[in-house]
Amino acid sequence: MSRRRDDLARLAKALDLSADVIRRVRRGSVTVTTKKGGDPVTEVDLAVSEALRTELLQPGEGWLSEESKDDLSRLRCSRVWIVDPLDGTKEFIQGIPEWCVSIGLVEDGVAVAGAILNPATGESYLGSKETGLRRNGRAARVRRRAALKGALVLASRSEVARGEWDGFQGGPYKVEATGSVAYKLAMVAAGQADCTWTLTPKHEWDVAAGVALVAAGGGTCWIPKGDALRFNQKSSLLTGLVAASRALSGAVRRLLKGATSGS
Question: In angstroms, rounded to a whole number, what is the distance separating the alpha carbons of residues 189 and 134?
Answer without folding.
Answer: 10
